Amino acid sequence: MAKILVVDDEKLIRKSLKVALEEEGFGVYVAETGAEGLSIAKKESIDLVLLDIRLPDINGIDVLKMLKDIDNDLMVVMMTGYGTIDNAILAMKSGALDYINKPFKTKNITSLINLAIKTQSLQRDVRRFVEKDRIFYGFDKIIGRSDAIHQVLDMIKKVARIDSATVLIEGESGTGKELVAKAIHYNSSRCNGPFVEINCAAIPSTLLESELFGYERGAFTDAKKAKKGLAEQANGGSLFLDEIGDMDAAMQAKILSVLQERKFRRLGGDKIVEMDVRVITATNYHLRDEVRKKKFREDLFYRLNVIHISLPPLRDRKEDIILLTKYFINEFNELFNKSVKGISSDAMDLLMCYSWPGNVRELRNIIERIMIIDNPEIIGCEHIPVEIASGHDNLLEISGLNHLGNFEIPDEGIDIKEFTGSFQAMLVRKALQKSGGKKERAAKLLKIDRFSLRYLINKLDPSLGQSDKSPS
Ligand SMILES: Nc1ncnc2c1ncn2[C@@H]1O[C@H](COP(=O)(O)OP(=O)(O)OP(=O)(O)O)[C@@H](O)[C@H]1O
Ligand SMILES: [Mg+2]
Predict the structure, then answer these.
(1) Which of 30, 107, 444, 453 is the most buried (most CB within 10 A)?
(2) 150-159 residue pLDDT tens
(3) What is the pTM (predicted TM-score) of this model?
């Protein structure tokens, strides 16, 4: 229930408003003087004040200013007795929502208040959503400890502050380009405006123009109604053009001219639409190479590349894998209400040695799948998908074989039994993974019989045999 405060020295007005507003379902407080009104506003969480401009103690305009100091969101409607327009203008300049001339019909006041309360509640909803997005896309949601990620973070913090600088984000699929684009938007002064995205590769180039710039009624056969384009919808916010490298030559020319002019016309229209957006673009390509190959316009490249952010592939910043893995485990624990405690160091080794062609998205998907399907207490090697655990390079890397060419026995020597033992244990683990834990098949893969396998498991690492569910 919204709370309304009526401040007026005329008893009759206080009384009639109280009755009428209580009938509408509002909570109503009344005050005779400015001082009394201010003290109520300090104590109660008032939504709207009906404030007489002429009060016995303090001038109504001053009371308005003091009310706004107490709570800037407080809506104040002035009631002016003399109806001088000067006073009303002054009140509006000082933050009043509206003014109403006395004498008035209570019906007019109640409908004005109902509308104001509804608008305020919608505004609060919007603010809450924006706040949620701001938290969701905070800088702290970009995880990593590599120099590369630190540099990216430093850069986007600066960029967010520069209100309309155009940004080009390059990086392989799944490296976090969209995440970075959103972090820039939601941490900039444009965060209350919309973040509008369009994937230039997903829309046929014939449709892209009308999607982006909209059209007037009758612009083409199917245009039964006028439609705002995405560039217009993004006004006041940011426009994210994803996969910009896939834009065809005609669209590149059009975009270039729009970016230069900062205005455009809808298709089939004459009216000029001013564009007040920050343009953020992203691409999987090396756009400079595309320019060299004459596939992308050089002048457009320079227009877009005002601020350049490059997201390196995950395999070039392996130190981020550990943090990301832990972050995703926490994320999915919360999301799916699970209680996975962590990941074993052997399993972590497997993740560290993989080349991650799908980058962070692939890592995230794998952790998600393990947590949904296996839901283990601790993620172990047996949960890591075979394609990740058994990459050829991977095997060599784990075993150290790819270094053997220049491997030298250290001065203190090496324990050949221990070394070959751990190598054997790894091969046994691989075979068990590949066989889904079935010892019979694992033994075949290793070209030994199952008794030998059992012997090896017991000797090397009894925990290896625990995933076996098949009768043997
Ligand atoms: N540094 C990071 N920290 C946390 N999560 C990340 C990070 N980088 C990427 N992600 C997550 O990985 C997934 C893929 O990221 P995103 O969609 O931003 O990639 P992209 O570069 O836009 O990929 P594509 O080129 O395929 O569109 C998302 O779920 C994103 O939240
Ligand atoms: Mg993307």
Answers:
(1) 453
(2) 999 999 999 9
(3) 0.70
